[in-house]
Amino acid sequence: MRWLAAASSGIPTESAQQAVGYPTLFVLVLLGALVPVVPTGALVSSAAVVAFHQTAPFALALVFVTASLAAFLGDVTLYWLGQRGMGSKNGSRWLEAIRARAPEDRLERAQVKLAEHGVAVLVLSRLMPAGRLPVMLACLLAKWPMRRFARGNLPACLAWAVTYQLIGILGGSLFPEPWEGVVAAVALTLLISVTPSLWRRARAAR
């Protein structure tokens, strides 16, 4: 996040921000797809805020391309690793990591929806908090080939990047200072992430 703070301060030039910022965004989103503990949505929203306040042409477009490409490559790599685990007698740590983040009830719902709606479920899973891995595991269990998964996952990653970039643009348009927009975008992203979980807990308590 150091590059975001530097960009918000206005000290480095825009070309220097871009030279550091886009590769950093790519690496972090890629890692977040492989190891789902990095808040990739917040990163994309924050990058969009910074790009919104820049004068360089196509800054927002570069954020979109960088984020969607990194998310797609990360998902495809994780799916490939999961396929290797499914074909191995002892599985793999990557497959176990996917299983650990796909509770049985969510997996069952994902399998039903995948059987009913097919590729469309992949797009929705990328937009729903904690929805990506259960659907990915459902695809693995259904023995989807890589080509079919990638074909469905591409529009999912594009829709995901657009959604979180719009959150960043909203935050950037509401505040005159980039750092204020970053704070607002991160807060909104985190709120979106935790709301479904809180709703499920409230329903379970009732």
Describe the structure.
It contains ten helices and no strands.
Annotation, overall tally of beta strands: 0
Helix share bin: over 70%
Number of helices: 10
Q: What's the pLDDT, averaged over the residues?
A: 80
Describe the global form: elongated
How much beta, percentage-wise? under 5%
In short:
This protein has 206 residues and is an all-alpha fold. It is built from 10 helices and no strands. The protein has helices spanning 2-9, 14-34, 40-52, 59-87, 93-100, 104-117, 120-127, 132-141, 146-174, 178-205.
Topology:
Elements: H1 2-9, H2 14-34, H3 40-52, H4 59-87, H5 93-100, H6 104-117, H7 120-127, H8 132-141, H9 146-174, H10 178-205
Sum up the structure in keywords.
206 residues; mainly alpha; 10 helices; disordered N terminus
